[in-house]
Design brief:
By secondary structure, the chain is an all-alpha fold. It has 5 helices and no strands. It is elongated, with a radius of gyration of 17 Å. The two termini are 29 Å apart.
Length: 123
Amino acid sequence: MSAGVYLEEARTLAGTCIARERARHGGNADEARDRLARRIGWAPGTLYNLMRERLKGLDYDLRLRLTEYAVEDLQNEIDALTREMERARNLRGPQSVALADKAQKLLTEAQALHARLGGGGDQ
């Protein structure tokens, strides 16, 4: 792959991580980007420049940390959804079926993304 492709993939991955961070903790995109930067150990300005297409090249360590963080984040979500699905299955009544179906759908989506990022999918 060319450097431009790696840069675009990193930008897309960072955007996904920022969106997930924002959905999970609220705030605006700048706050979510700053939280993500702290979590991966990089300067917020580097992520800002990545998202604004200002980086001329991609540091391998940045790409690696973004990928590691995304895989870890998805693994945590898969684990939480698996627990939620088990709780829903243990409930009685019609709501338990709907909750289990929703949890299964979310789990399947998270596993597919996790596999796409190279984290495996057999959870």
